[in-house]
Amino acid sequence: MKDVMSFRLLFFLAFFILFLILQKWSPHRRKTPQLRSRRLTNLGLGAFNLSLVVVFGQLTQLLSTHTPSWMEVTAGVFLLDFLAYCFHRLFHLNSFLFRFHSVHHSDASIEVTSAFRFHFGEVLVANSARILCAWALGFSYVTLFIFELVFLFFNLFEHSNFQLPQKLSGFLSFLWITPALHRKHHSILHKEMNSNFGTVFSIWDRLLRTYTPGGESEDFPMGLSKGQQERGFLKALALPFSSWRSSTDL
Ligand SMILES: [Zn+2]
Ligand SMILES: [Zn+2]
User: Fold this and answer.
1) pLDDT at 11
2) d(CA 182, ligand 2 centre) in Å
3) Does any domain span residue 188?
4) Total number of domains constituting the chain
5) Ligand 2 center to residue 31 CA distance, Å?
6) Would 46 be classed as within a structural domain?
7) Which domain holds residue 104?
8) Is the distance from CB of 172 to CB of 178 less than 8 angstroms?
9) What's residue 135's pLDDT?
10) 19 Cα–ligand 1 center, Å
11) Domain membership flag for residue 127
12) Which ligand is nearest to the CA of 118?
């Protein structure tokens, strides 16, 4: 268990630092509003969510410890990513759930630390559902662990404020969610915000008609409208209890 946690931490740090360097080297947006205070909020929420590791540690004990085949791992990555797509879409459709998810969208511009900007209420529901689904399908703990590494990588990658070459971005977006596609999901425009719900694969959005193409050179206002941008850590935690709107009301 200790080795698994250390590996996950090293994996996270390696890609977090890599994307921080890429953001600095080739930023998509050169100037972003109140970067320092937004980063503090994002890191604060991330640290708060870490405290839930104990809860999830208990739940993962439900899972089998067999060594999975590559078939199982591949099926696990596809199915658990599809579950994440469904939950993300549900968190936009349901006005009560969107109260919690709006914390993620309240970032006025996205960058690598936006990957941590989730309310603990959403993390608790979505992660518990993932572990219970893995248990119901008979997946091994190892399958869930590999999925979570892939999911973590894409979460950091697609929130990063770096500019990919358009050809590479277009090529990757056939199968994967890229930063340009995820920026569309953070658009202030209701129609664009309610699209590109995927995290790892873009195929779910394509198949279920929620796909909006995104170009690397495009820039547009991001976040929530109507003065709903929240930048303080405590305000972000309180946001679900002070705003009462669905993403379809915005
Ligand atoms: Zn969303
Ligand atoms: Zn996001």
Assistant:
1) 95
2) 6
3) yes
4) 1
5) 19
6) yes
7) 34-242
8) yes
9) 96
10) 21
11) yes
12) 2
